[in-house]
Specification:
Blueprint: E1 2-4, E2 7-12, E3 19-22, E4 31-37, E5 45-48, H1 50-55, E6 77-80, E7 85-86, E8 94-100, H2 104-111, E9 119-120, E10 130-136, E11 141-148, E12 163-172
Parallel strand pairs: 1-3, 2-4, 3-5, 4-12, 6-8, 7-9, 8-10
Antiparallel strand pairs: 10-11, 11-12
Length: about 190
Amino acid sequence: MILAGAGDDTITLGDGLDILVWGDKSNATEHGHDTVTGFDTANDKLVFSTASIEELSSVGAHVAGDGSDVAAGAVTLLKVDTKATDIGAAANSVITIDGNYATTDDLTKALETGGDMELIFGALDTANDSILIAYDDGADTHVGMLTTSAAISDGNKAASDTLSFTELVTLTGVADATSLTVTDFGDFIA
């Protein structure tokens, strides 16, 4: 098990099973962005601390696609590969996004109303509600928090210029974010 510390880390994983833990509730320091080389989708796991996610200044509440609070426990994953996917239909705690996005601005514009991969959200009732997502740029996968600056009512899309992305982990060399499955994530910890 590898515990990523506060601040930005560069981590190289070895052969076999590696478990990378992002965040630790006992550390009151805001965690940074970790760059990971050697992540094997057939063996390795990412584990996230909900408390550490909510310590981020950009994040209000850590929520699932339906707007429910994410707590310690099992991950549920939804792969989005079509426009107008209703991510609010269930409490999916990790969302993977199909397509290649060169920048986070390209990503957020694609997910907002009128975008190439616009999403239908659950009840994200409060500004700064944030969902854990993964997307790629065609070379690397980026895992982090998709945050809304304005409340979104159930069954609606995000208005233009209201979504932002805070990167937590870059998986160098994982070219397709949708290659990640629920088995690539360990249970959320507090």
